[in-house]
Amino acid sequence: MASGGLQLLGFVLAFLGWIGIIISTAMPQWKMASYAGDNIVTAQALYEGLWMSCAMQSTGQIQCKVYDSLLKLEGNLQATRALMVAAILLGLVAVFVAVTGMKCMKCMEDDQVKKMRMAVFGGVIFIIAGLAALVATSWYGNRVARAFYDPFTPVNTRFEFGSALFIGWAAASLAMMGGAFLCCSCPRRETSYPPTRGYPKNAPSTGKDYV
Q: What is the Cα–Cα distance from 53 to 206, expressed in whole angstroms?
């Protein structure tokens, strides 16, 4: 029962992490900047994500524009996109594999060892997906931080970390933690010992010798 509870907890954490990775990928707030200008009325917030850039006016109106061409994007942004999409696809595969190996499911009930190995394999895929998302978000965040502290970057165009980055970091951590819990449900190999042989008991002596 303890291993089943740990397995269920791991799957729930990993699944929530996978959902968080999807949300982080779709959000446009990967980096953000505020610009007030000479008049507070013209204040606006700028957001940039993996797929679009948005501007929010002081009146609350938001305007977003999808990036026109994939070939015009920077190589770093394309690599970040690829890693996040790969993390989502790996997470989808991990969900199906881990569900097959869950103890509460009726699939593969005739072979419990293979069933638990499927859950472990799903946990490994969840860990890989979380690592891909963690690399993508950390790489993007490092670029934002370097541009922010670059003295040649104009003050009005200095971006900071957006909420999508924090969600991505938390989601990647949940996916890896859940995958680790799933891996802890690996069946232990039992050591088999040869059966002990009983020694024949000596017949009680009757005190009579037969020739």
A: 103
Q: What is the rounded CA–CA span in Å between residue 125 and residue 119? A: 10
Q: Which of 132-136, 144-148, 171-175, 188-192 has the lowest mean pLDDT?
A: 188-192
Helix (H) or strand (E) holding 101: helix 75-101
- Look up residue 154 and give its DSSP letter: -
The structure's pTM equals 0.80
CA dist 171 and 41 (Å) reads 37
Provide the pairing of β-strand 62-66 with 44-48: unpaired
**Contact at 8 Å (CB) between 46 and 32?**
yes
Residue pLDDT, tens place only, 30-76: 998 876 555 555 557 888 899 988 888 777 778 888 887 777 778 88
Cβ count near 66 (within 10 Å): 8
H-run or E-run covering 48? strand 44-48
φ and ψ at residue 57, rounded to 5 degrees: -80, 165
Task: Answer whether CATH 1.20.140.150 is correct for domain 4-27+75-184.
Answer: yes
